[in-house]
Amino acid sequence: MSHRYRTSLFACVFLLLFTGAEVAHAGFGITPPYVRNSSLTRNSVYEQEVIMVRGNPDTELVATVTVDAPEVESWIEVLEGTEILLPRGENRIPMTVRVTVPSDAEFTDYSGRIRIRTQPSDEQVQEGAVSITLGAQVSINLTVIDRIIEEFRIRRVQLPELNAGRQIGWLYFPGRIAFDMRVENTGNVDFAPTRVTFDIYDVRGEALLEQTENLGRIRKVAPYATENVIAQVPTRLPPGNYRARYNIYNKDEINHSGELNMIIREYGTVQAAGFGLRGLSTPHLISVMLPILGILIVVMYTGYHLYYKRNYRRKRYV
After folding, report:
1. pLDDT tier at 295 (50, 70, 90 boundaries)?
2. Segment 144-159, tens digit of pLDDT
3. Which of 47, 138, 163, 202 has the largest count of CB atoms under 10 Å?
4. Strand, coil or helix: what is 268?
5. pLDDT tens per residue across span 245-257
């Protein structure tokens, strides 16, 4: 092996070991490298998180963010501001991009980019030192459409323990199943599951004991957001262990279904309260409302009779 060849090989190894290590040390990237939505409507608000990732975070950096999207620049807001601190020791720093579509936006495609440039903070820069600036680019691809989309995705469900119902006089107040759903609204308007049904079986899942569904509306989730919502479902089953098969509906179609174990405790065991008047059966509700309605009729009739009698006497003596 010639002297020149050995010298060149040594130089290459040196560059790989030292220069290559410095590049990894200073590496910077983003994920995902885009802000993308193809189902925006006028007045809609969309947020997307972009994670800034860097290599060995042994220095404090500042990321300067600029938006280069002339058509939609006024729509774009970086919630953390235009200068974001990347602290020492942190290699994943989130940046939230919010898109607010105006009411007069045209129904078309829009594009642009967000530029991110990093450099050491003022405290990290020593006099006479040379600092290396690294950056990345987030592409913007948005579409505003003239169509309402009502869709959602169920990310998770939970079925906490609950109290059995209770008897007060002739009235039975059912237990309350607080069916917890983590809902991602994949549409472009406020939306949520429209109905939840439960088929409740014995613990072996063989004998069907009760069919029930939620009472009242389920709170809606903002477009593109993911939140926990509760479906309030009544049950008149006694304490025990059960197997519940649930269906979550988007209007008339089943969006998500599954099975869960359900545990009903003695009344007063679990802190969550049961249903009030809303949970009463129709006959029981009628038995409560009829006396109240009767009393109101008597009061109104008596008041009208007294008013008429008093006016009649005034006219008679005038």
Report:
1. confident
2. 999 999 999 999 999 9
3. 138
4. coil
5. 999 999 999 999 9
Domain 152-280: top CATH class? mainly beta
Which architecture characterizes domain 3-144 according to CATH? Sandwich (2.60)
Residue tagged 């530029």 (tokens): 115
The pLDDT, as a whole number, for residue 17 is 37
Distance CA 313, CA 260 (A): 72
The span from the CA of 241 to the CA of 55, in Å, is: 52
Chain centre distance of CA 223: 9
- Domains of the chain by residue range: 3-144, 152-280, 285-318
Q: Do domains 3-144 and 152-280 have the same CATH topology?
A: yes
pTM to 2 decimal places: 0.70
Tens digits of residue pLDDT in 259-285: 999 999 998 887 666 666 556 566 656
Supply the pLDDT for residue 317: 53
**d(C-alpha 117, C-alpha 62), whole Å:** 8
Nearest alpha carbon to residue 60 among 18, 12, 109, 121:
121
In order of 159, 245, 282, the CA distances from 165 in angstroms are 17, 20, 16
53 Cβ neighbours under 8 A, 6+ residues apart: 28, 29, 30, 31, 91, 92
Give the SS3 label for residue 104.
coil
Residue type at position 47: E
